[in-house]
Amino acid sequence: MSTAEPAATPAPETLSPANPFAAPSTLPYELPPFADITLEHCREALVAGMAAQRAEVAALLADPAAPTFDNTVVALERSGALLGRAEAVFWNLSSSMSSDELRGIEREVAPLSAAHSDALRLDPALFARIDAVHAGRHEAGLDDEQLRLVERYHLDFVLAGAGLDDAGREQLRELNQRLSELSTTFGQNLVVATEAAAVLVTDAAQLDGLSPAEVEAAAGAATERGQEGFLLTLVLPSGQPAMAKLRDRELRHRLHEASLTRASAGEHDNGPIAAEMAHLRAVRARLLGFDTHADLIAADQTARTSAAVDELLGALVTPAMANARAEAEVLAELAAADGVELAAWDWAYYSERVRAERYAVDSGALRPWFELDRVLVDGVFRAAELLYGCTFTPRPDLQGYHPDVRVWEVFGADGAAVGLYLGDFFARDGKRGGAWMSSFVDQSELLGTRPVVFNCLNVTRAAAGQPTLLTMDEVTTLFHEFGHALHGLFSAVTYPRFSGTSVPRDFVEYPSQVNEMWALWPEVLSHYARHVETGEPLAQDAVDAMEAAALWGEGFATVEYLGATLLDQAWHRLTPDTEVTDAQAFEARALADAGVAFDLVPPRYRTTYFQHVFAGGYSAGYYSYIWSEVLDADTVEWFKENGGLRRENGDVFRGRLLSRGGSVDPLGAFRAVRGRDADTGPLLRRRGLTPA
Ligand SMILES: [Zn+2]
């Protein structure tokens, strides 16, 4: 929205014109004027922005004209401009520059924000207008993107329950309320039970195999809880890092049992909670017109149906199991030499020995070849230049939200301005862990905006005057996150709802995973991987060894992932008339039925600590990681079949897929690139999984 567009919006009384959010930024690409923005400005603009959007919607509803695409759907797309500006800054700062003051505002604003979106999506008058536009959509002369936008809005509202009558809405409210309570309890039980399951070791000799730093950390963990000895605390997945190192088999066994039985008995038993949640989700799905919760979730995703998810997972089970069994044979032989009959708690230990003995790779030794700036400019940017013809010009005159943030202007092959790319690479207090991409401005023709995107990493800053050296994992992460950035930068859609990475969850990781392929592409690698002191290129032997080592253990990794995924699916395929009384028996049966029951390889998460699906946003959606990877591996194969790093290939991938954001059917975009439906063969080959 521009200032020249008065619209029917009454100016929100509470927002002073001096607030930098009051009008769109006048900086290039509408980059937020970070130097002028305070957290108090954010707070005021968020509150005023919600009021302004409610006023905009009220004006839209007051329009006496019959509902049309323009006066309803487009009007909604234009609404909330002030709120959008403030949210983009505030929520990104909450991830990258959190503070007590910010968290205070977050606590104040989060419930207002939830109530605001509920008020919009459950407004019967608004839904009635959208429903009317939806009903007449095929006679309204809409183009494909417009048609898709109508359907998208309609589905959003239907999934929120806007189509229900008063009694239905009340039932939905109660279900959501109870589910939210159960989800909180699940998460809290898990925290308490995980702490309680930590394994106390009194004899230091039992820790043989751990590094001195790890032993020290275990001693510190014990002291912190006022206990004598050493405490091995648990991480979320079934496999515990210490299992790969501990020589003491009895201790490995204890750690394994502690991990797998977490939150499965006593007052913090999550079994009954998971069962009730699965049941209530089934009831809610039926209320909203779906057979099961899995079908409801799939409707909103690339997969579309739970049958499509089944087909994909089914194709992977047999080869993954065959490979896990083959790995088990190798490990059993090694264990037998120690007089040990291989059990689940021995797997990681012997697997690590195979890795060390067969594929001697010291990833730390490669760091001098991966200097941050060189990786970024001569690697990541260079690959994008060769593929897409774009160039990157530093803009030190433009300021980010923190002194560490650097800004580049991106230009296309024809010299046309594309957008801004911001890089925020170093770890610091107040920045959450991990790596991600996000945006401050999304591209949209409707609003006349061009993209301002950024990447956050958590690289440890080198000592003053020293170059920052990355691990190979960090190099891959940078290519990955930049793949998301390109998805945002190349967006060429009309409507903001479809901009850049606004695609389904089971699709969004796919373009970023594809971009990882260029990290080890010879032409790119030889350009950036130069020794920081001597300039010597990285030896091909080292690259080959890394690639070979990465393949070991894929049978195990795929089976443990599939176990968790198929468990997630089984819980969410229940119909409302089935109630599970014994969660553990249900789990055992589900794994057996899916063909992934294997004592030596437990699922990556068991029901009682499956946080993603019972206390996170991934219910019936844990499959999406591998779904994206199938598309990724098949696309990597397509690039290779067509000569790899060539402008022609980049132009196809950009034009038919990256630039389309969510404006087209995602699998249609995939087919437009690949020329056919996705095939699981390339993924199996990449993971070294040969069909049984
Ligand atoms: Zn990603």
Count the DSSP helices.
25
**Class by alpha and beta content:** mainly alpha
Radius of gyration in whole Å, from Cα? 26 Å
Strand order of the largest sheet: 3-4-5-7-6
Bound molecules: zinc ion
Structural overview:
By secondary structure, the chain is mainly alpha-helical. It has 25 helices and seven strands. The protein has helices at residues 39-62, 69-78, 81-96, 100-121, 124-135, 144-160, 166-196, 212-224, 249-260, 271-287, 293-299, 306-337, 347-358, 372-388, 472-489, 505-515, 522-528, 540-551, 554-571, 583-594, 611-614, 624-641, 647-656, 666-674, 681-686, and strands at residues 199-201, 230-232, 391-394, 406-411, 417-426, 436-441, 452-459. The strands form two sheets. It has a five-stranded mixed β-sheet, with helices on both faces. A two-stranded antiparallel sheet has the order 1-2. Mean pLDDT is 93; it is low at 1-12. The structure holds zinc ion.
Short description:
This protein is mainly α and 692 residues long. Helix content is 53%, strand content 6%.
Question: How is the topology of this model organized?
Answer:
Blueprint: H1 39-62, H2 69-78, H3 81-96, H4 100-121, H5 124-135, H6 144-160, H7 166-196, E1 199-201, H8 212-224, E2 230-232, H9 249-260, H10 271-287, H11 293-299, H12 306-337, H13 347-358, H14 372-388, E3 391-394, E4 406-411, E5 417-426, E6 436-441, E7 452-459, H15 472-489, H16 505-515, H17 522-528, H18 540-551, H19 554-571, H20 583-594, H21 611-614, H22 624-641, H23 647-656, H24 666-674, H25 681-686
Parallel strand pairs: 5-7
Antiparallel strand pairs: 1-2, 3-4, 4-5, 6-7
Zinc ion is lined by residues 480, 484, 509, 512.
